[in-house]
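step=encode ok
step=design start
structure_in=
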């Protein structure tokens, strides 16, 4: 469990039912993805709002990469490598978007795919 998951579990809304780390990760990714998507669709467009959402998304992927690289991570090696590849792509693509050279749509798509995996709704 990474720092974000532990913090959300420790400082979340009191008196709620126990949430699994998987559920907490899903909710965190969902919240960040919603902000990113809203920033992309906002009219009038605000680069500052997009940059804030992109920063949150970057922090998410850095934390996920740290967790994935931790020796105690219990995910299968192949899945860890695939997710680390997504983290690396997301971090590089964030720079490309912030430089004005591409769209952040693919970052939303990646987050949604990870959310599907966390929820067990993976398309085969």
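sequence_out=
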């Amino acid at each position: 469990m990474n720092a974000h998951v532990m913090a959300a579990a420790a400082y979340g809304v009191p008196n709620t039912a126990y949430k699994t780390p998987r559920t907490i990760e899903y909710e965190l990714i969902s919240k960040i993805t919603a902000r990113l998507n809203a920033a992309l669709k906002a009219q009038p467009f605000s680069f500052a709002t997009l940059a804030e959402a992109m920063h949150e998304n970057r922090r998410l992927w850095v934390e996920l990469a740290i967790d994935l690289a931790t020796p105690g991570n219990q995910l299968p090696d192949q899945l860890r490598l695939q997710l680390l590849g997504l983290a690396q792509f997301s971090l590089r693509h964030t720079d490309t978007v912030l430089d004005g050279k591409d769209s952040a749509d693919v970052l939303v798509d990646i987050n949604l795919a990870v959310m599907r995996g966390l929820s067990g709704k993976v398309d085969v």
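step=design ok
step=annotate ok -> The radius of gyration is 15 Å.
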